TrEMBL record:
Residues 1-37 are annotated as: Disordered. Residues 1-10 have a biased composition (Polar residues). It comes from Paraburkholderia terrae. The lineage of its organism: Bacteria, Pseudomonadati, Pseudomonadota, Betaproteobacteria, Burkholderiales. It comes from the Bacteria. This is CUB domain-containing protein.
Amino acid sequence: MTGSADSSDTVELRLDSPPSKTATLLIKGDRTGSPPKAVPCTYELEPIQKGALESPIVKITFNDKQTMTIACDPLSDNCHADSYPTVGGTSFSMLWHITRADVQSAHTKTRLRQ
């Protein structure tokens, strides 16, 4: 997922594959020229309610116990957080966008290594 920081730097939320519940919030420093900064966190996917459209809801917990819940639109890649957390002196926007991995590219890279 991508979003932005209060400094306008791009922020990427990278979720590790289940069963791991760890994630990294990466502040890229692309607008300010600051070195990239990684913020460790954990995540939990909320179960999809029966009969509802599949719309992911992710609860992020930072090391200082702040939380942010991101709900995504089931018909697009747009998401909305429930708060503006401030972690390590940086605040994050409420708007997020799902960035999907290029599965074909990842598969090709794996085959090339064999």
